[in-house]
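User: I'm curious whether this sequence folds into something compact or stays loose and floppy. Could you predict its structure so I can see for myself?
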Amino acid sequence: KMAAAAGAAAAAAGLWSEVNRCGQNGDFTRALKSVNKILQINKDDVTALQCKVVCLIQNGNFKEALGIINTHTKVLTSDIIAFEKAYCEYRLNRIESALKTIQSASQQTDKLKELYGQVLYRLERYDDCLAAYRDLIRNSQDEYEEERKTNLSAVVAAQSTWEKVVPEDLGLQEATYELCYNSACALIGQGKLNEAMKKLQKAEELCRQSLSEDSDVTEEDIEAELAIIHGQMAYIMQLQGRTEDALQLYNQIIKLKPTDVGLLAVIANNIITINKDQNVFDSKKKVKLTNAEGVEHKLSKKQLQAIEFNKALLAMYTNQADQCRKLSASLQSQSPEHLLPVLIQAAQLCREKQHAKAVGLLQDFADQHPANAAEIKLTMAQLKIAQGSVTKACMILRSIEELQHKPGMVSALVTMYSHEEDIDSAIEVFTQAIQWYQQYQASQTRGANPKSPVHLSLIREAANFKLKHGRKKEAISDLEELWKQNPKDVHTLAQLISAYSLVDPEKAKVLSKHLPSSDTMSLKVDVDALENSHGATYVRKKAGKLTGDNQQKEQGQGEVKKKKKKKKGKLPKNYDPKVTPDPERWLPMRERSYYRGRKKGKKKDQVGKGTQGSTTTGSSELDASRTASSPPTSPRPGSGAAVSATSNVIPPRHQKPAGAPATKKKQQQKKKKGAKGGW
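Assistant: Here's the prediction. I'll summarize afterward.
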């Protein structure tokens, strides 16, 4: 027994040396085989179990490693294997479990703190994550300091993008392209697009310099690394309205076939937003990229939500009503307070001509979520206007209390009421808005009564509206209030005098004394320059030098208007002044009385027509009863002459000039036309 034990110990020692050598060489597959042999000797060897878990992690077998940890909980306690367990859970996308494992560890090692920061970032707990990385940078000094700073800048960029938090200046030197890229993302979140584009260009330059130093890196590898930077550049172009440039860059990235499924999903989604309701077949192809495996672990919640919204909209644009309803209902169940799902459902109902149902759906949502009621009611009002129910739209708009006093809302309501010729309601809208500003400013100034520019502007607009619609008495109080605020305002005083002149002339006379005198109102205007300006309707001609004859004419006869010389008309080359012009020369050739059609060969026309010995001359031409002096006979049934009298009237453009004689040839031509059945 002692010899067997000694042999087993010697074998184990040899195996451990093999494990150590393979570990140093990075050959974890061979190391795993040696560890398994050790465990055959002693299945509960804690060190061997730890080594096996590490070998499996290094080989990417996270599930198997986690299984070994969970089956040997008595031996592998949380104090010993906490980091490996949390790391396996993190890599298997069990983020919540990883967080619990880290928090349950008795000792927070540096490795656990690093992993804790990564877990918090994936859970989008950016404030806690920022604090964790600051603590790590403050208390760590090793070769990984640059990576920690990069992660810290990524957290700041995420806060700026998704939480709209203004990032603080961390004082990080942007020496690497990763730091430069994250800084650009933070600037995009703040809306500083031009600055962000410059940062991305700098990041691209740094990336090329960094990778070109490695001789093993090809140009394709560099382009693949630059894909994410180019993707952000295209996004900035899209935000700036340069959609064609953005689309071109997006498609270039897709052609590279990057391995990052998250990047491909974002680019495909952005292309779909550019296409909108156009090029839907291309959009349907791009949607497949957003459904790739693992996308949900690469993107933030808001990114995934935006992709799902666009899928629902694309289903609506492609007339997939059931799919649209299904997707929007799923989104609404996930985010009950979000506006977009219910708006998509309402839009789909409108496409199906169910406007009343759409309005009802929006009304239910507004009742359930009062915080979002304003935007929903604006949509309801738009639907009512589309249906022609302007008055109902006004009622909906006036129910939005937080917007009643806004100048834009007042303007919209007054315009709509004016369209409906409801002047009283329009004036009521003005009155309510003015009262709101009076109450607000009274509360802010503790009884003082200065008017804000918006308040004064509303009063002026109300006065102008009342004057326009003949409400002089109502306009007077508004004008007096305006004049009281600014007694030097001549325009308001003039309006007030004009209004009083129709209501109280005596009062108008009294007020007119406050008008400035004509001397003080004289304007320094160059009349000549004004008359000769480009926009003047009348331009005075400059006086030229007058000769002696011209002076006499002006003194004796006054100004004589110059007569324009008529240009002589061009005469035809064959014009003969002795010959009277053809009175029918203005008519088309076909409508002239002497037109006989195109000339054809006589022999060709006569050969083979009629019986032998007969002539081609019509019998109607030899019949004396059909001459011009004879009364017209009744037309034959079915002939072209049997047309209503009105249809034979020649249009005015073709009428014969007055006084032209009706020749015999003209009558004959008409008869020929009638015999042929008309044309």
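Summary: Confidence is low (pLDDT under 50) at residues 1-5, 613-679. Residues 2-25 form the longest helix (24 residues).
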